[in-house]
């Protein structure tokens, strides 16, 4: 070897045996050092009176360490760096997308695969003491708060006072409470950093979370109510039907017979093992709809009924339907006692009414509208309906209020009255208007069918009630006027203002001096007395 500045001496070659001897010498020296160190350490322990086994030689290098261990360490460091880079990339992706419905993914730029990341997490290589410290922060603050005595404060060792209203402690506890909000409330990573929240902010978030939870429940209830309005069978109704079957009143429920504006009619079979009473073999289950958008005027049929006046009040729609079902049950029982053909009540529970089935072999009796009858049968049906209307008014003290060919069933030569939930008593305000409407429906139907000698609705009204329709309307008009003044109607003196005004008005109407008109529900204006022509 040569150099322009100096002459470098050629190094002498080293013998391989000398190299081996140096390695052997180092090994022997290392053993001697270990032996001497153990001896000295033992003497020191004996001098101090400590008798314990020798600690492991942790300060000495691993004899089995090779270049492979360095490679494994390098790979682990590289993987940890890749995961940190991917985590930063994930945060950037979330920040870029935000709440947008269309998101952009940076997965192609990641350095570590998801499987590798999960393996490292399972092996414990990614445990970060700082993250553990952040999660333990909530527990630490909670413990510090619990050790505060009942006086509301405590003194630290350095002399400072800590109260239960400490801002740092209160803010951290509020952040911990926020993490317990419902899953649909997006709280974010509140434990990933030192999050503190004032009472004002926490209360606002809590109120907002409660309102959102209530709104979601209302939306769920609306969906269920919509299903109830369409089919009448919601979850509560299914439970009721299930209990009726468990009580052995019904054996099974087959299917839907019809769907009306106020209820759904189901066919069912009674349980033969029921021993408390003799049940009809086939039954009808009438499920009233708890949400009614098609029949909103139902309150006019029940609000003035003395049987339910005290129980109406400000009821929910579901509880109002309970009263409606109970009213139909009482009306059917009253009709059954006076001998009017109608379904027999079997069982009532809330808005589910079980009745006897008019028909046989799962085939319901046809409505009078759809029944195929000859002339003699139509004439017989006409006389039956007229007679039943008289019995209903005179003996049962009821007015059907919705009598038509759609609510009369023809079965084995008899006319059965159904759907009497809206039936009212004669004392009900507007009941005679309902009766006149029933008379018109019945007379018009049989006139269309060609039944001979069908009387006029006004004459039918007189045969049923024994008085003219105009007289009844005049009486109802006066009663409705003084209905809001019970102190005038309850006077014991016969010369009360109510009696005087009614008698005076009635005499003027009879003499033709007064022509008065009254508007009946859903009917044209009807003159009470026609003024004689001059």
UniProtKB/TrEMBL annotation:
GO CC list: cytoplasm
Reaction(s) this enzyme catalyzes, per UniProt: L-threonyl-[protein] + ATP = O-phospho-L-threonyl-[protein] + ADP + H(+); L-seryl-[protein] + ATP = O-phospho-L-seryl-[protein] + ADP + H(+)
Pfam families membership: RIO1 (PF01163)
Main subcellular location of this protein, as a coarse class: cytoplasm
InterPro entries: Kinase-like_dom_sf, RIO-type_Ser/Thr_kinase, RIO_dom, RIO_kinase, RIO_kinase_CS, Ser/Thr_kinase_Rio3
Family annotation (SMART domains): RIO
UniProt entry tagged with the keyword Lyase: no
Compartmental location: Cytoplasm
Top-tier EC class: transferase
An example Gene Ontology biological process: defense response to virus
PROSITE patterns according to UniProt: RIO1
EC number: 2.7.11.1
Cofactor: Mg(2+)
Residues annotated as transmembrane: none
Top-level taxon of origin: Eukaryota
UniProt keyword list: Antiviral defense, ATP-binding, Cytoplasm, Immunity, Innate immunity, Kinase, Magnesium, Metal-binding, Nucleotide-binding, Phosphoprotein, Ribosome biogenesis, Serine/threonine-protein kinase, Transferase
Domain RIO kinase as annotated: residue spans: 222-466
GO molecular function, one term: ATP binding
Family: Belongs to the protein kinase superfamily. RIO-type Ser/Thr kinase family.
Oligomeric and partner information: Interacts with CASP10. Interacts with IRF3; RIOK3 probably mediates the interaction of TBK1 with IRF3. Associated with 40S pre-ribosomal particles.
Name under which the protein is recorded: Serine/threonine-protein kinase RIO3
Source organism of the structure: Agrilus planipennis
